[in-house]
Design brief:
The protein has 16 helices and no strands. The chain has 393 residues and is mainly α. The chain has a single domain, classed as MFS general substrate transporter like domains (Growth Hormone, Chain: A, Up-down Bundle). Helix 1 runs parallel beside helix 4 (71-86) and helix 10 packs across helix 12. It is globular and about 55 Å long.
Length: 393
């Protein structure tokens, strides 16, 4: 495993996903400024998530066929530009469009980034993809902190800092990846055809599991700040710190989940995560104490974050001939279901008993995902080929 290249692409992942991480904490500020209700605010998460997700398989197919470093830095640039504009815009359609632009940036980055991480992991995909995922999950930790600091210092116009950061990081990422790709091409050109076979049935089951995980993650990530401000009467800054805690625990568990997946199997880690997540999900909406609810965020974070890299690696193994497409679906299209579900949860909160009822609606989603995970199996390892001294098999 080339750790230097893994760290570079992981840094790019952080630069991209810091924008998605910022959005849930930004939503209460936008809602207060423009008088949005829960459903309307959830629609903004829908704009970002669905735009990011639906077009990712298309970029994944391009990543399979066209070897170019341009997608990753361009994706980082667009993702930051969209979030950066949100604080300057006055109308809902304009903010919605800016978040669509940001989502398209994420769609550009992820398939190429995951393909690159897979290629330089050298047989340790669980660990390599977990390091890649840590970059993205760290963005979800840093995003709320950056929003809180920027809005405290500059008001909503402080979102411009995301555009500035994306410009700097995209330039750095382009320089590093361009040089790295040219060097790799000189040393060992990538094969024209991918090896292995595609197991579409197994990939379909995995996609259902990822859809479940997506609804859980985006549902919690979008409404945790609202939950603390509206149910527990906390400040917006405190709500941002709570979201940072949730994502921080998730980042740590993501690394451990990747390491564990390499040892005990990818599908087993996914099943164990659902076993941990479901009881905490049933208890969370019933908590009257903010402290007890905060404690329950820890097992929720472990259950949702720890299997993520295992899911991405399994997808790449199930579609061994189309790694970019697999990455586009697992990191993108399947996640769009979470974006669609977010405004639905907001509708439930607005009309049927508030956010605790909406959070309780996530439990059946976890049950469906857990049951589907029982049918996942790790692909058989590829047979090793021994070479004689003259290089013949």
């Amino acid at each position: 495993m080339d750790i230097q290249k893994i760290l570079v692409i992981s840094l790019g992942h952080l630069s991209c996903d810091i924008n998605g991480g910022a959005l849930p904490t930004l939503l209460p500020y936008l809602a207060a400024m423009h008088d949005f209700d829960y459903q309307t605010a959830g629609g903004l998460m829908f704009a970002y998530s669905v735009a990011s997700s639906i077009v990712q398989p298309v970029f994944g197919l391009l990543s399979d066929k066209v070897r170019t470093p341009i997608f990753a830095p361009l994706g980082v640039l667009l993702a930051g530009l969209g979030i950066g504009l949100c604080g300057l815009l006055d109308s809902y359609p304009a903010i919605f469009a800016a978040l669509v632009l940001s989502g398209i940036g994420g769609a550009l980055f992820h398939p190429e980034g995951a393909r690159y991480a897979n290629r330089v992991s050298a047989g340790r995909q669980g660990m390599g993809l977990s390091i890649f995922s840590v970059g993205g999950n760290s963005g979800f930790v840093a995003g709320p902190l950056l929003v809180t600091s920027a809005t405290f210092l500059f008001g909503l116009h402080g979102t411009l800092i995301f555009a500035l950061l994306s410009l700097i990081m995209s330039a750095l990422l382009f320089r590093l990846l361009l040089h790295g790709e040219q060097t790799d091409a000189q040393r060992s050109p990538e094969p024209a055809a991918a090896q292995g076979s595609n197991d579409w049935r197994a990939f379909g089951i995995l996609t259902l599991v990822i859809m479940s995980r997506s609804v859980l993650f985006l549902g919690l990530n979008s409404y945790i700040p609202f939950y603390w401000t509206d149910v527990f009467q906390a400040s917006k800054a405190d709500a941002g710190f709570i979201l940072t805690f949730f994502c921080g625990v998730g980042v740590t568990s993501n690394v451990l989940g990747g390491m564990l997946a390499d040892k005990i199997g990818y599908s087993r880690v996914i099943r164990l995560a659902y076993v941990l997540c479901l009881p905490a999900l049933l208890l969370f909406p019933r908590m009257d104490s903010a402290w007890l609810a905060t404690l329950l965020l820890a097992p929720l974070a472990v259950g949702i974050f720890s299997p993520f890299s295992a899911m991405v690696v399994l997808g790449q193994k199930y579609l061994a001939r189309n790694v970019g497409l697999a990455s586009g679906v697992t990191l993108g299209l399947a996640l769009s279901v979470g974006g669609i579900a977010t405004p639905v949860l907001g509708f439930v909160a607005d009309h049927y008993g508030g956010l605790p009822v909406a959070m309780l609606c996530l439990a059946p989603v976890a049950i469906v995902g857990g049951l589907a995970a029982c049918f996942l199996r790790d692909p058989a390892p590829e047979p090793s080929v021994s070479l004689s001294k003259d290089g013949a098999a």
